[in-house]
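Students often ask why inverse folding is considered easier than folding. One informal answer: many sequences map to the same fold, so there is more than one right answer. In these notes we will look at a single instance of the problem. The structure comes first.
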């Protein structure tokens, strides 16, 4: 199966746990996810930089480089072939069908974009290159710099950047709260990986350093982070469900079945670690790298049925949420001053208390044998109509629904979509807290990445 295939079941929504610091605020909505009853929630975002810090950031961005300006409307040179968190806990029947999320949102935070036209630059600029190397641990030779495109505002600050990997695929980085380069974990960009891009990222990205792992574990530790810890576990369970379903579909040789069993074993160990609320959280980089290797092999397995290929595509979208919400947005920024710890609000305290009540978690092997929620397993059916309305609202018409890829977060909210456009470009859109409308979205049209 070609890895650039878009989920044949339809769009895959992306709604992420926002960066830590002030991102433990979850939007409530009942659901039964991965056998764990929680309310729908995802972080609301982080506070923007103060004006002085913002000016300093922009001045540094201006002096860092002089970009080469190109047309803001760049045609694709090659088109890819389309394929296929306050949180309160409430009990619900394990087999109850999950309805489409209808999150209650209060003052959602979007990235601050300076007024004036944006300009497109070619190449990996110093802001983006520093982030990839020093925060994400991606070496220079893993990036196809010439094919990387960034949009900058009049102050020279990166608003979004589509980074192409040398091994194929891409990740789109969206400015978070007007801070790029990021000044702290809370202002790291929000990332949307495509299906080949998530595999290339985990093939090339280095392991987390002890300092990085400690910071990530702190994001999932203690009573103030119970919601994040629960969502991390739900994501792991979703991957376990997906791989179990693929294995049960047959058509696999012994080596493939063994690889799936090993990945499920790693997921089980990580899930059980999270179930012990006092245990340090598992290393997401190490875990997801192992799982990505299995999906990489499955994506080229020609013996799989059409349904299994669709499930592999769906699993890659779940893995993209893994990287976006539980790995790359939890990392420390070198040189950043420790953020002041704000006292949790009453709503946050209630949410985390409710989430903490779910620990220890339900047995992993019971959970993984249950089907994915409708939002996870058939996102096109759940979100398709809303996505179509969103596309029309931004002037995108005539899209083949089979070319829409959906990324759905652990709260069963649509977090992102990627859409193949008729002019050969691809639209990548990041939604804020599950709200699928143009006022709550960041989106960019870029040439479709090449796949190898």
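Output (designed amino acids):
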């Amino acid at each position: 199966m070609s890895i650039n295939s878009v989920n044949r079941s339809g769009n895959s929504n992306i709604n992420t746990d926002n960066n830590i610091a002030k991102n433990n605020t979850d939007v409530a909505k009942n659901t039964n996810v991965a056998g764990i009853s929680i309310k729908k929630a995802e972080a609301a975002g982080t506070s923007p930089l103060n004006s002085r810090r913002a000016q300093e950031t922009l001045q540094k961005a201006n002096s860092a480089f002089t970009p080469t300006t190109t047309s803001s409307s760049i045609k694709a040179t090659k088109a890819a072939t389309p394929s296929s968190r306050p949180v309160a806990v409430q009990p619900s029947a394990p087999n109850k069908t999950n309805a489409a999320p209808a999150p209650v949102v209060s003052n959602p935070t979007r990235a601050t974009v300076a007024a004036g036209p944006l300009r497109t630059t070619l190449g990996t600029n110093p802001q983006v290159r520093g982030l990839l190397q020093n925060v994400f641990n991606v070496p220079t030779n893993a990036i196809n710099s010439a094919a990387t495109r960034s949009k900058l505002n009049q102050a020279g600050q990166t608003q979004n950047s589509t980074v192409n990997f040398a091994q194929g695929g891409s990740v789109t980085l969206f400015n978070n709260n007007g801070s790029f380069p990021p000044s702290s974990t809370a202002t790291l960009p929000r990332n949307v990986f495509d299906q080949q891009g998530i595999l290339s990222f985990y093939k090339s990205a280095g392991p987390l350093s002890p300092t990085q792992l400690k910071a990530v574990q702190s994001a999932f530790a203690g009573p103030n982070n119970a919601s994040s810890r629960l969502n991390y576990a739900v994501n792991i369970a979703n991957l376990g469900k997906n791989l179990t379903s693929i294995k049960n579909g047959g058509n696999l040789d012994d080596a493939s079945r063994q690889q799936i069993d090993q990945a499920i074993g790693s997921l089980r160990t990580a899930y059980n670690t999270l179930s012990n609320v006092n245990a340090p959280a598992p290393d997401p980089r190490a875990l997801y790298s192992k799982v990505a290797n299995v999906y990489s092999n499955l994506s080229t397995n020609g013996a799989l049925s059409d349904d299994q290929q669709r499930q592999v595509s769906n699993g890659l979208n779940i893995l993209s949420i893994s990287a976006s919400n539980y790995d790359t947005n939890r990392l420390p920024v070198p040189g950043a001053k420790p953020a002041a710890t704000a006292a949790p609000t009453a709503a946050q305290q209630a949410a985390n208390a409710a989430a903490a009540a779910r620990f220890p978690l339900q047995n992993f092997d019971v959970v993984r044998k249950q089907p994915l929620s409708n939002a996870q397993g058939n996102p096109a059916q759940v979100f398709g109509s809303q996505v179509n309305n969103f596309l029309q609202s931004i002037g995108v018409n005539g899209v083949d629904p089979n070319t829409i890829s959906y990324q759905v977060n652990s709260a069963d909210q649509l977090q992102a979509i990627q859409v193949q456009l008729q002019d050969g470009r691809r639209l990548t859109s990041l939604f804020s807290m599950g709200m699928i409308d143009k006022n709550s979205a960041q989106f960019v049209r870029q040439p479709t990445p090449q796949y190898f």
